[in-house]
Specification:
There is one protein chain. The protein is globular. It contains eight helices and no strands. α5 runs antiparallel to α6. Helices cover 75% and strands 0% of the residues. It is mainly α.
Length: 146
Amino acid sequence: MVNRLSLVDATLADRISAAGPEAQRAVARNVALAAAEHVGLDDERLASILAILRADVAEVPDLTRANAAVEDLDNAAFDAQDRVEDGTGSDDDYARAFAKARAATALVAAFADDPAEGAEDAIYEAYHATDEDMGPLRDTIEQVLS
């Protein structure tokens, strides 16, 4: 089965797959935090998982509030897209809403049961949250994998 990351960067997907679980979790954590910082993610329902990721502790929190935030942010992005399509919204507003939703999804992905899947999904979502610019994310990933 092809993972979503391989659609963006097959070589990176292979490297993530070959890395050990500790490195995979570190990659997921670091790219998710980078995406959250890039978009200025400030939803208070994500505060606890941001704190856990920043503290780099092996704790899996209850993700109920975070998943609700992701759903709300996704819906806000869809609403912004609808406003663009009907001429009442701007592309910039949609891009900001979309980026926040993707960054929030990257944060949740960092807690996946399967560390490889979590890293792949976090990178994929962070890529879309950061204007599809793999450069800074690749630097963050290389710091972990090298």
